[in-house]
Amino acid sequence: MVILIYFVVCIHFRTIMSNKFEIMEKRDEEQILAEARGEIIKEMFYKFPINGKEVTGISWVGTKEIARKYGGIRMGLPNVTEMNESFVCSIQAEDTRNEITLVGSSQQPKNMTLRSGEVKPDPFAYVKCVSKAQRNAIRSLIPETFLLEMEKAFSAGKTLEKNMRDRVPSPAAVRREAVANVKAVEEDTTFDLSIDGIKAALTSLGYPGKEYEIIHDEPTRMYVIVKAPWVDDWPKYQSDIRELGGEYNAEQKRTVFRY
Asked: What b/e sequence results for 122-138 when a residue is b if at least 16 CB atoms lie within 10 Å of its CB, and e otherwise?
């Protein structure tokens, strides 16, 4: 019975996510076409109900506007491949301040299906493909915390200033501040590296510090993270750990802080 409920919930969740993706893709395509026609678009975020719940998503126009407010994003040239039935595009985007480069990609069918069911060539398939790849590349660079602040500002009808990014600490700024704090504390003779200290440092970097299980291995003079929550950006996480003075042991698959 429990297994059956689990599968029902999973299917229901996938249906919601699929519906959300399809709706947002359709709305973005409408914005891309409107831009091609020279129209001025003001809808930065989408809000629509799915199964009785309001879902919020950032639009194509909103993605570009937020990228301008965030600043420091450099886009590469699109790499487009024409297939038999679709276009495939990939493009690099670089966050020059944080020295992070990620790739966005998209695939767009050459044909479109009208509401009548008729299938005909889509004259804007190439434009849609490139725009979506740019959207995905930019979206992958902008932190969730910044997006949330922008969504709040748009919802409140506020005009975003050019220096809006400076009001929301970037990941690099948070790391620098955390490292500076740790170093300052280490220089204090009253401080000893501790389990609570490591958790506090991880929390300051945006990780759920309370969820980490850390032990003090006194014979080897080190603190060991024996249980940690899942992280999406593993390279960034490793970089953060190194800046805090820790190291990841790949053979033993554990993170340690030596003293």
From this structure: beebbbbbbbbbbbbbb
Pairing of strands 222-227, 213-217: antiparallel
Q: How many CA atoms lie within 13 A of 36 on its CB side?
A: 14
> Tokens 């966005």 sit at which residue?
104
Encode pLDDT of 206-252 as tens digits.
888 888 999 988 888 888 998 888 888 888 888 888 888 888 877 77
pLDDT in tens, 140-180: 898 888 888 888 887 776 554 444 444 444 545 545 555 55
Residue with tokens 């909103």: 62
Helix (H) or strand (E) run with residue 113 in it: strand 111-113
Q: Nearest-5° angle of CA 196, CA 198, CA 200?
A: 65
CA distance 30 to 58: 14
Alpha helices in the chain (DSSP H): 2-36, 60-70, 125-141, 144-155, 164-167, 171-187, 195-204, 234-243
Coil/strand/helix, residue 122: coil
The amino acid occupying position 54 is E
pLDDT per position as a tens digit, 101-142? 999 999 999 998 877 788 889 888 898 899 999 999 998 898
**pLDDT value at 11 more than 60:** no
Give me the residue spans of the domains in the chain. Answer: 19-167, 171-258
Helices 60-70 and 125-141 cross at an angle (nearest 10°) of 40
The closest of 46, 61, 143, 147 to 102, measured between CA atoms, is 143
Residue 29: predicted pLDDT: 80
Paired strand residues for 224? 215, 256
